Amino acid sequence: MNPMWQEQNQQLYRKFEFPDFKSAFEFMTLVAQKAETLQHHPTWTNTYNSVEIWLTTHDANHTITSKDWQLAKEIDGVFDGLFIQERFLSLLNIDIADKSFEEIQHEMVLNFSNRISNLQPTYAQHSLIQLKTNFLENLEGLCSVHQFTPEKTKAIISKFLREIES
Predict the structure, then answer these.
(1) Which residue has the higher pLDDT, 130 or 162?
(2) pLDDT band for position 157 (cuts 50, 70, 90)
(3) Rounded distance, CA 96 to CA 104, Å?
């Protein structure tokens, strides 16, 4: 059982906090897509940067079932993905406010190029491999958070690799 989810009145409950309304709304949009896929929908409220969610299974007499725990797990995955994405981009000093995915990707390429130029010659090859791996893992995470298809994710990663190799 996830300690962040609380059982209250035959429902699972959790409150999520975000830096701003836009982030909260993005979270809700991604959760809505997961809920549609699972055909299990939350009760929720949004007040500026916070989202409160209650999960219960209506066709099981409003009790908590495995459907609720499965959706809670998916919701946690969305939240964790957004948190990791935000943290990674902030570490790179990439401001994502009002930017498209393509603009963020372009900034990642520039940031990667700048980091390559600062590598120490002795460790350059090893550091380059490690740096490339970190960027690719986080780019793949971004694609996952945005729920891109495997084909689109592959195309984005291929484009990123082409751009950093040139």
Answers:
(1) 162
(2) confident
(3) 7
Which of 31-45, 78-92, 121-135 has the highest mean predicted lDDT (pLDDT)?
Answer: 31-45
Domain ranges of the chain: 6-87, 97-165
Cα Rg of the chain, angstroms: 19
Angle, to 10 degrees, between the axis of helix 101-117 and the axis of helix 124-145? 170
Range 6-87 has CATH code 3.30.1360.20: yes
Strand order in the sheet with 50-55: 6-8, 11-17, 50-55, 43-47
Within 8 A by CB and 6+ apart from 146, the residues are 101
CA distance 166 to 163: 5
Q: How far apart are CA 149 and CA 157, in angstroms?
A: 12
In order, the DSSP letters of 44-98 are EEEETTEEEEEE-BGGGTSB--HHHHHHHHHHHHHHHHHHHHHHHHHHTT---TT
Per-residue pLDDT tens for 81-129? 777 666 666 656 656 556 676 777 777 777 777 666 666 555 556 666 7
